[in-house]
Amino acid sequence: MLKRLTIITGTILLASAAWAEVLDKASSLGVAQDATTGIWTLECLSEVTGISRSDAHSVGASVQIADGTGAITIFSIQKDMLPAERRVTESAEGVYDFEMKKAGNRIKVSIDVLWPSVGTGDRFICVINIAKGLTGAHEQLYAMEYTHSIRSSGTP
To answer: How far apart are CA 150 and CA 92, in angstroms?
Structure first.
């Protein structure tokens, strides 16, 4: 059973004003702690609607935990999705699950990360960039970055 769940909605960074009129974008960040195990769960979601199914897309994403002295990258990925693909996944059991799905004119990216402990003032940082085109030759459609600070040890 989760002790507490925090959902944060943040500022959308737009790479191109032209796409702002055509694409709908949404994202969220949730942080919770399991009351029994004490394990922290971070769920980061990002979605763009209005894409073309016939285009290739790429996603760059990372999750870090930071304290006053530095940051540790828990998860970092760069994935391409060809037009014929509908789902790209990657996971490391007990650490993270990554999924990029294309359905119709929508692309959705979800990241779930587990982390054993955090201290007061520590911050989870989640970054997702969704682009049209393959890595290295793309046009950014949507970029989001969320930061969630831990108020006190054991409290999201």
So the answer is: 25
